[in-house]
Amino acid sequence: MGHFSSMFSGLARSFSIKKVKHNNGTCDAKEAADEMVKDAKKKEMILKSCGYVYAEGSNNSASVFSKRGEKGVNQDCAIVWEGFGCQEDMIFCGIFDGHGPWGHYVAKHVRNSMPSSLLCNWQKTLAQTTLLDPELDLEGSSKKFSRFDIWKHSYLKTCASVDQELEHHRKIDSYNSGTTAITIVRQGDVIYVSNVGDSRAVLATTSDEGNLVAVQLTLDFKPNLPQEKERIIGCNGRVFCMKDEPGVHRVWQPDAEAPGLAMSRAFGDYCIKEYGLVSVPEVTQRHISAKDHFIILASDGIWDVITNQEAIEIISSTTERPKAAKRLVEQAVRAWKKKRRGIAMDDMSVVCLFLHSSSSSPSLSQHVQHAMTFK
């Protein structure tokens, strides 16, 4: 057996699953995924609110913070899961930014259901691929199925099933409400990024010249992006800005001044799904090197007032990792009050995932000439 099948065997052993059941070529892994969730909760490896997570024996550490804006209840939420899928070298992180009257319920539902659904689909795909080729070695240069293929397929199935489940949820009205979802899975020295909506992932890395630079890992899926606008118009939806919001492109129904959604991809929002809004994620991967320091996941409230470069400099100049996410949010609040005076502040949420242990990571302070401050 190659690395691929041995990984699946490791998952099975984690819960003494002696045999995987197969029906018509599919694998039922939901029970195993649910057990993994329960086990992770017991061991306090899942963080769903503000704080800091660092699992013993792990090189991963993450800082999380969320702050309510001035529009009502906080519709943002986050998750960090160390030891994702009972694998010591895996971690799952996500930011979910809800909108609409039921947006906070939608965001929390997607946050709670996505990790276990992703695990389930990942195990299914893993098992099916292993059955097709038991000698498959993911590390081989001539592999037919790559790890990226597996994760992309798993994410596509997960997002489709989560959105379908949400549509038929008896207690959550998501017809005029929805959420974004920016998530990453780190597996060893590779990260897989899935993006639905306009939240953003930014990597802090060292350039060849030795400077700390920001690399944006995702697109902000706004309705005016050429490929997004083409799809929306092709589905008879409309894209335009309101007179009092120049530069803010929104999706509208063909014959109504609704819903005015400022993103082109989201979970929920079924009032406009037939007019070009989709919940299909963009899935990408990146190999982590010694030059890569941390990844910031943040809702759009942060990026409305903070640039990518400012964000990584704020994090890198924070001496205590557990306070990193909170400090970025606090700086964004100050920036909002300065740059967007008179406009109700949005909810702001940040997950900062450090890619190397503090003892092995090179000092970041040498890259930062000036800490970013907003008075």
Automatic annotation (TrEMBL):
What is the protein's name according to its record?
A: protein-serine/threonine phosphatase
Q: Which UniProt keywords apply?
A: Hydrolase, Magnesium, Manganese, Metal-binding, Protein phosphatase
The record, for PANTHER family, names: PROTEIN PHOSPHATASE
Molecular functions per Gene Ontology:
metal ion binding; protein serine/threonine phosphatase activity
**So what does this thing catalyse?**
O-phospho-L-threonyl-[protein] + H2O = L-threonyl-[protein] + phosphate; O-phospho-L-seryl-[protein] + H2O = L-seryl-[protein] + phosphate
Where does the PPM-type phosphatase domain lie?
A: 61-355
* Main enzyme class: hydrolase
Look up keyword Hydrolase and say if it applies. Answer: yes
Any single Pfam family the record assigns to this protein: PP2C
Q: Secretion signal: which residues?
A: none
Name the SMART domains on file: PP2Cc
What biological-process GO terms show up in the record? negative regulation of growth; response to water deprivation
InterPro entries, sorted: PP2C, PPM-type-like_dom_sf, PPM-type_phosphatase-like_dom
Gene name, please? LOC108813195
